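Hi all, long-time lurker, first post. I run a small reading group and we've been trying to get comfortable going from sequence to structure in the token notation. Rather than ask abstract questions, I figured I'd post a concrete chain and ask someone more experienced to write out its structure so we can walk through it together at our next meeting. Sequence below, copied exactly:
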Amino acid sequence: MASAAASAHIPSTPELCSAARPPLQMHSEHPERKRVLFVTSEFADLIKCGGLGDVSAALPRALSPQHDMRLLIPGYRQIVNSGRPIRIVGQVPGIAALPPCQIGRMDLADGLIVYVLLNHALYERDGSPYVDTHGRDWADNHIRFARLGLAAAEIAAGDAGIQWRPELVHANDWPAAMAPAYMAWRQVAAPSVLTIHNLAYQGLCDMRCASELAIPEAACGVDGLEFYGQLSFLKAGIAYARHVTTVSRRYAWEITTPEQGCGLDGLLRAKVLGNQLSGIANGIDESWHPESDPHLLQGFSVGDWAGKQANAEYVRRWLNLDADGPLFAVVSRLVHQKGIDLTLEVAEHIVARGGRIGVIGQGEPALEAAMADLGRRHRGRIGVHIGFNESDARRLYAGSDFLLMPSRFEPCGLSQMYAQRYASLPIARCTGGLADTIEDGVSGFLFDAPCAAAYRQAIDRALQVFEHPQLLEAMRCQAMRTPLYWRQSVQAYDRLFQRLLSPVSARRALC
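-- Answer (accepted) --
Happy to help. Here is the structure in token form:
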């Protein structure tokens, strides 16, 4: 339920000042550049919980040469208090239980424009975008993120007072997935794209919330938002978006199967039949460069491994690890999806073979506790840091020989690409984007079954390679050449946007 406070007046501050309105921009300065609103719940420059934050920071920037890209994100406390000026450029009214909000504009140093959806009671809270400081979902998440989707639709309709109107809306994951639905119900002509970063998180709420969210009664059936007696934000986005993408080709296929379709495989297969589902692999941003990364103790390049050794020595000191043995890294959210329980199961095997394990991450309390206990039982051989620090994470990638990534499913994954760029060979399950980005025995090691026995076999293969320096160096060199930067991997998005915005596509959408 929405609280009365959520619809309270939003006070002005020196940073949140009204802006003069220029003439409405209906056409891009360059005809080939289209206006695209990128709707997200995370943005690594300002607030990040996972890979979505990295993608949201990198993809719009990579597409900026081709399109006028602008972001829309909730005005979390971390954003409002970031020290960057925000000026009010628009507002949206309340409807049902969705409160009125102001829309601020933040201009970043590199020219990227971020629209911030401002409502103090709704978004400015301690905790993360999704949970409180105790790790519990905010009870009004359905209000908070439906409001985000509706604001995107209002901006696309030209009803938010912003002197800029997108020609296409790109929504990301369940927190933004209501945008295509609200656009359809309001008959907004602009096409919408929904990118599924993780199908397992669907944004479910009670069916009785439909009236709070101003959802038409006709949309509440099985052909709309209804999902086993609940409302699914993600299903809404899939059903109403003009096109759906996922973050790897293999994952696009996997989610159409009952095994990984999370109950939405039938709807997704229908999207395939309509040529409305595709997999577009993520890239990594330009900061992941081992020669020049300022986070590293010392840079390195192919054939010059002194910097890699310097980072390894730092990691061993930081985590109190013995100086000998190959170094295995875990840089991950500590959650069931990531197969952390499997790593716990094989850890003693690694140690018995002379390996050392460095862990940095946080997540489910039970897995955090189990990992911390593992470190206490194997002092000097397993070092565990519960939490996250960007510099230490990058140094662990750079200093390690292997990355452990036994994910039960992985839509794309960025960690394996970060590791490869820093000459750490991933040992990963053959699933989703891991299968697309790792060539077994060439740029890493893959195993099929999500079980400890198959995982141990892949680890043993990696240890065999470690004992042959020439082969190890050859695989490191190949791994470093494997990942794509975003500027190399955005062509597919550009082609999709151009297709959806073509006159032929627009006519088909009206049929």
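A couple of things your group might point at:
The chain has two domains: 4-9+34-284+488-510, 306-483.
The first strand starts at residue 16 and ends at 18.
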